[in-house]
Amino acid sequence: MYLELEELYNMKTIQSKFNEGVLLEQLLDNPHVTSQIIKIKKGANFSADSTSQDSVYFLIKGIAGLHYNNRLLVIADQKDFIGLDDLLTKDAPTYTVEALEECEVIVFDRHEIMDFLFSMQEGWLYLYLNEKKHHEILAKKIQFLHKKGIDRLTHTYYDLATRFGEPTVDGNILPKCFNLKRLAEIANISPNSVASFNEVLKERNFIVKKGASCIVRIGTEKII
């Protein structure tokens, strides 16, 4: 499917004209699409009804985690949509979204987004680009799960510190919401393994503990 579309459309053109930022601008400018900005408290789910499919979210800031079967597996990207990939499914979502830190989001009505996209001649390209992105994420996740436990934890530290860490002269400070239990879920290893591997990573000077803070020394890791 992707190869056929890429023969008809230049991929750079698709990515520049149909990305999340462009879609957000068009939705906000459309008088037929309602939206509101809300804040979601730390520890709260984005939707009180786990079976609800009424809303699509755009994460302005904050840290949000997607739980599959009550297990934290994916950390959402900031400045990106949550729920757009489920736009055409009739089944209830298989995940819940939790605010790991306070989040500020724009809430859209999913049916209004569907009407907007289907009213455009090439509106489906937004969905295509979003689906392609999630297929790539899934492929990387499968590749990730084939790594050794300590390599998965190293990659997890690197990814989270790069995306959400506070830069300092010593490295990036990992947000405190990524505690041992959550690191274990994301890396798909046991909490005991995280504690054991942490000692190895400290010896390698990849992570440094300063009080309650964990500093990840970006650039000293060995990503396999």
Write the layout of secondary structure elements.
Elements: H1 2-8, H2 11-17, H3 20-29, E1 35-40, E2 55-61, E3 64-68, E4 71-75, E5 80-82, E6 95-99, E7 103-109, H4 110-118, H5 124-145, H6 149-164, E8 166-167, E9 172-173, H7 180-187, H8 191-203, E10 207-210, E11 213-216
Antiparallel strand pairs: 1-7, 2-5, 2-7, 3-4, 3-6, 8-9, 9-11, 10-11
What's this model, at a glance?
The protein is of the alpha+beta class.
Mean pLDDT: 85
Overall, the morphology is elongated
The string of secondary-structure elements, in order, is HHHEEEEEEEHHHEEHHEE
State the end-to-end distance: 30 Å
- Structural class designation: alpha+beta
Rg calc? 19 Å
Explained architecture:
This protein is an alpha+beta fold. The protein contains eight helices and eleven strands. It has helices spanning 2-8, 11-17, 20-29, 110-118, 124-145, 149-164, 180-187, 191-203, and strands at 35-40, 55-61, 64-68, 71-75, 80-82, 95-99, 103-109, 166-167, 172-173, 207-210, 213-216. The strands form three sheets. Strands 1-7-2-5 form a four-stranded antiparallel beta sheet. β10 (207-210) and β11 form a beta hairpin. It is elongated and about 60 Å long. The mean pLDDT is 85.
